[in-house]
Amino acid sequence: MIPDLHSRATPSPNAATSQQALSDLEQAVRRAMAAQLQPLRNELTELRRTAAIPGVVYQAFRMAYFRGRTEPLTIPNIDYFLFAALMNGIQFVSYDATTKRMVLTKDGVRFATDAYFYVLLELFAQEEYRSLRALVDRPFVIYDVGMNRGYAALWFASHPACRAVYGFELFDVPYQWALDNIALNPTLAPKITPFCIGLGGENKTAELIYEEASDGVSTIMPEFYASYWTPERKRQSQKKTVQIKKASDAFATLPPTQTGELRVLKLDVEGAEYEIVEDLARAKRLNFDIILAEAHLGLDRFLSLLPGYRCVETVRHSDLMANVVLVRDA
């Protein structure tokens, strides 16, 4: 919902100019709400260039969304978040000045974030996995490998046909975020079983490379690190030793699905998706009806590991990276 700008703005000495400014602002907001996520910064730039819009009006608009709280306005790129939230019905609930966390809600689901809100927007603004809705016609179980802060797990669990979500997250920092976000949703929490476990092609010790000041970007794959991380990110990166569990062994410990249920695998593991799929295939556990994956080191390479599946959706981000939706051939 667009805030009531007319009731909150400070009147201009020139009533006609002020009214036109408000109209320009509202039109810019409506354009942003109708746009896709990527053009939002362009909309914001256009809005700021409109000389007729008084700064006080724009500030009132921002304050209206955050219910009078000024602290969120200091978050970097908060206007990018603000327009994405308005466009997609994400509502502000509260802000904790001690933890610097916002609590937000959409469609009855609550979730917390800080300045690193980009994964949240992928799930609840862009709805990265929205194509799943057209593919599930009966109860299903999700295996969320690369759970991060739990946003995808909550998005999946909110679907009425979702019976259970098993979430796997290697890095303890986003895993704790996931626990906190799950706790914000007592009606969805019983569906979600989280594990602070990293999955791979074998049981092993690995070196995790991560950014402390991020929303959980981390990898155990040197090839991913070399391909995607800028020199600046590499300088700021940190490392820790972690234990990786063989994916097929981890899946073998989970309860079986019920008769007639769909099995859905979601993979977003910064390059480890290849060895995970290879291990599941060797163990004859690659028995999912639907696979939602982000291939980071080449789509053709990833698809070659999945005979018997057909691609129903592909979104390419670069020569190496693509999101893909696959369904098992009947």
Walk me through this protein's architecture.
With 330 residues, the chain is an alpha/beta fold. It folds into two domains: 5-123, no CATH class; 128-328, 3-Layer(aba) Sandwich (Rossmann fold), CATH 3.40.50. It has 14 helices and 14 strands. It has helices at 5-8, 15-34, 40-49, 55-65, 78-87, 118-124, 132-135, 151-157, 172-183, 222-228, 231-236, 247-252, 273-282, 299-303; strands spanning 91-96, 101-106, 109-113, 140-145, 162-168, 192-195, 198-200, 204-210, 218-219, 238-246, 262-267, 290-295, 309-316, 322-328. The strands form three sheets. The protein has a seven-stranded mixed sheet. A hairpin with a 4-residue loop joins strand 1 (91-96) and strand 2 (101-106). Helix 2 (15-34) packs antiparallel against helix 3 (40-49) and helix 2 crosses helix 5 (78-87). It is globular. It starts with a helix and ends with a strand. Keywords: Methyltransferase, Transferase. This is Methyltransferase FkbM family. It comes from Opitutus terrae (strain DSM 11246 / JCM 15787 / PB90-1).
Helices and strands, with pairings:
Blueprint: H1 5-8, H2 15-34, H3 40-49, H4 55-65, H5 78-87, E1 91-96, E2 101-106, E3 109-113, H6 118-124, H7 132-135, E4 140-145, H8 151-157, E5 162-168, H9 172-183, E6 192-195, E7 198-200, E8 204-210, E9 218-219, H10 222-228, H11 231-236, E10 238-246, H12 247-252, E11 262-267, H13 273-282, E12 290-295, H14 299-303, E13 309-316, E14 322-328
Helix pairs in contact: 2-3, 2-5
